[in-house]
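User: I'm curious whether this sequence folds into something compact or stays loose and floppy. Could you predict its structure so I can see for myself?
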Amino acid sequence: MQDNDIDVSPLDAFLMRFIGMPQQGWINIGTTTLTHADFLKRLSTAKAAMQEVTLIPGETTYIFLEQMAMQLDLDHKILLREFKRQSPFKEGAFVPDTYKLPLGITEEAVITLLLQRSEKRMIEWSQKIFGTYNEAKWYKYLILASVIQKEAASVEEMPVVGSVIQNRLNKGMKLQMDGALNYGKYSHIKITSKRIRDDKTAYNTYKYKGIPDDPVCNVSLPAIRAAIFPAKTEYLYFMKNKRGEHDFTRYYSTHISNIKHATK
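Assistant: Here's the prediction. I'll summarize afterward.
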């Protein structure tokens, strides 16, 4: 259990001045029957063993839960089921961070915990930016931010990638971005021309205009800010160069030249 779940009586609080203060965070009470005195003692001594799990920006929930299942010896299928049952979003509901989780936590509890912590952070971010939190509006920005997160080579590039997305949307152009196809289990799969031809989901921005119906991945605050406040440019194209950065341009002819230069 967590320390904020404990409700002790005034007498218990008095006794714990002598026994010791309750541990912060998760406490391993155990499953055996305890006397009241033993219970109070456990509160002050039985710190649960913790395991760190890290969600990197741009990772999909499918892959993150797969990795967490291996680290914490949990069932990936149950984690996915619990996520679908509990999450308000199909994707992008988790805030990338390093989380400390107790060993022995259940699939249901870990999803609840991560969603609660992530929602709290997102509401705080939204209130700082907009002064309020509107879930539907925020979700739209998560979608835009997820494409930016997958496409940008650095945090510095994010607002510029955001400007390309907005410029193409404003002109009624298809986004035609590979990163949108790195959803779910395809998070780290190289996008090929065959994949583009065969994928018929709304994530395929080569086939369909507009943004995907759902985020591609879990996103960082810089990606969200880039979606809300894109740079002001006239760029419509970008291509990764040999330095691993992107060359941006307004003109298709220059874009083709950049492609040829990068593949030499």
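Summary: The chain is about 45% helix and 5% strand. The chain has three domains: 3-45, 50-130, 135-262.
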